[in-house]
Specification:
The chain is 54% helix and 18% strand. The protein has 3 domains: 83 residues; 152 residues, Alpha-Beta Plaits, CATH 3.30.70; 252 residues, EAL domain (TIM Barrel), CATH 3.20.20. It is α/β, with parallel strands linked by helices. A hairpin with a 3-residue loop joins strand 9 and strand 10. Helix 13 runs parallel beside helix 14.
């Protein structure tokens, strides 16, 4: 349109100049014929004509400059809009660009009677690539994966990089052909996990995918992307190698998860998390020799909440350190006042074991509460040792140098138990409750308990058996040579006041029959 306007304006200006010149020429000739008395008038007319011509030419030049400036601004705005909607590294759309593409996809889906669909694909362990190989290699991995995804998605799909290691593919599908979108999502997964050779280094990346779809009239890009992300997170949490479809259950669980997280924050501010103590006894004498500290949430409305509801959420949201510190501080302060000097065992999560200052924090906690270091036992699960065995060794060695003892918890459920016993200086082995529960149904469980007890005796490490719920199990464990046990046969987890009363008795009341079968419960 701008060029068309120029074609109209230019002839008009040229015509105006020609008209002025023609009129001026006729005027000069008339004046000349009239005689010399008009000389001054001729000079004035000549000057006026020259000024008019100059004004017209100046106007034309100004018009051209304005048009060029308008063009430059339009090109600049177009470039800025393109940059704002594009990921600079991969050349794909970014989150803003994906949102802007929603209207076009909506109309396309509506016209074809299809559903709008988003595939959310997130790379796994990508940070470790940057850490080990550098950001240049990481960027190149992203570009190659982006190119592969873009090619596989096809020209009708809109492909975006919506986060550092996350991609979104916006497309359409026939409502009754879900298998086609699943096939595409699986192909994208395979592209993402395909080994990449860079500078003679073979790079491996994992990935998870989620899918969400909606009728075009309900399409809101941010909502559809959020649902696809929820499905993808479900796959990541469950280590599911195939694409996962979103369903409403996931969103309800996510809402509940968020409510629990907020509740934990409020609970920490108001010290609603309390230590409960599960007795540990000498199997031969029944004497209480210690307690394992378990976390309970004393909610003002919901009552007592078990750890299986809040511990995973606290770990996921970085609240486990504060929660554990709050519970341990109360437990050690209370136990320091008991009449009988019994042991107190505290569990350390895998997240806490990644803290290089953990040993110093525990020592400071002992100093602040006045609890003797030699009566504290720190319990570490086998699975938590895999993340950083060297750091685990450093932490346990530091604690032992301060007089704190260390127990290997849930023994038998990991992958290299014997290697851990040899490499780390454990003072106690705890046999997982799963073996006790199946003791009389599974000969393998019996054999494992016998073998572990024999091994522990050979290296002079005491054994505590978890999950002792019946008199029959108690008798069997005594025959196998196990020294200590804990479970509901000896007492349920109790408050600090109840634990203090039990300590004063020196041993629990004799049990002549098994209690009712307890409900399944989680450890904290």
């Amino acid at each position: 349109m701008r060029h068309r306007r120029d074609l109209f304006v230019l002839p008009i200006l040229i015509g105006a100049v020609a008209l002025l010149i023609w009129n001026g020429t006729s005027f000069f000739e008339t004046m000349k014929a009239a005689g010399e008395e008009f000389t001054d008038d001729l000079k004035i007319a000549s000057t006026t004509l020259t000024l008019n011509v100059a004004l017209i030419l100046f106007g034309w030049r100004y018009y051209v400059d304005v048009q060029q400036e308008v063009q430059r601004r339009a090109e600049s705005e177009e470039r800025a809009a393109r940059i704002a909607s594009t990921d600079g590294m991969t050349g794909l759309l970014n989150r803003k660009g994906l949102s802007e593409a929603g209207e076009e996809v909506r109309e396309s889906a509506r016209a074809a009677g299809r559903h709008a669909t988003i595939i959310s694909l997130r790379l796994n362990r990508f940070k470790s690539i940057n850490d080990r190989h550098g950001y240049d290699v990481g960027d190149e991995v992203l570009r190659r994966i982006a190119n592969g995804i873009s090619e596989a998605a096809g020209e009708h799909a809109r492909v975006a990089r919506v986060a550092g290691d996350e991609f979104a593919i916006l497309t359409t599908m026939a409502p009754d052909r879900r298998e086609r979108i699943e096939t595409l999502a699986q192909a994208l997964l395979e592209i993402a996990i395909r080994p990449i050779l860079i500078d003679e280094k073979l790079i491996h990346v994992g990935a998870f995918a989620g899918i969400a779809a909606t009728p075009p009239e309900d399409l809101v890009i941010r909502d559809l992307l959020r649902r696809a992300d929820i499905a993808q997170a479900e796959g990541r949490a469950g280590r599911i190698a195939r694409p996962v479809w979103f369903d409403e259950r996931m969103e309800r669980e996510l809402v509940a998860h968020g409510e629990i997280e907020q509740g934990i924050r409020v609970g920490l501010e108001n010290e609603q998390f309390k230590p409960y103590f599960e007795p540990q006894v000498d199997l031969a004498t029944g004497e209480v020799i210690g307690f394992e500290v378990l976390a309970r949430w004393e909610h003002p409305l919901s009552g007592l909440i078990g750890p299986d509801r809040f511990i995973p959420v606290a770990e996921e949201n970085g609240l486990i350190d504060e929660l554990s510190d709050q519970v341990a501080r109360q437990a050690l302060a209370a136990a320091a006042e008991w009449e009988k000097p019994v042991d107190v065992s505290i569990n350390i999560s895998a997240t806490q074991l990644n803290d290089s200052w953990l040993a110093q924090k525990i020592v400071r906690l002992l100093a602040e509460t006045g609890f003797p270091a030699e009566r504290l036992i720190i319990e570490i699960t086998e699975s938590s040792l895999f993340a950083d065995p060297e750091l685990a060794r450093a932490i346990t060695t530091s604690l032992k140098n301060q007089g704190v003892r260390v127990a290997l918890d849930d023994f038998g459920t990991g992958y290299s138990s014997l290697a851990h016993l040899r490499a780390l200086p454990f003072d106690r082995i705890k046999i997982d409750r799963s073996f006790t529960a199946s003791l009389h149904r599974d000969r393998e469980s019996e054999a494992i308990i016998r073998a572990v007890t024999t091994l522990a005796a050979a290296i002079d490490v005491p054994v505590t058996v978890e999950g002792v719920e019946t008199a029959r199990a108690h008798s069997a464990l005594l025959q196998y040579g196990c020294q200590f046990g804990q479970g509901w046969f000896f007492g349920k987890p109790m408050s600090s006041d109840q634990a203090a009363q039990l300590v004063r008795k020196r041993e629990p009341e004799a049990r002549t029959e098994a209690p009712a079968k307890p409900a399944k419960r989680s450890r904290a």
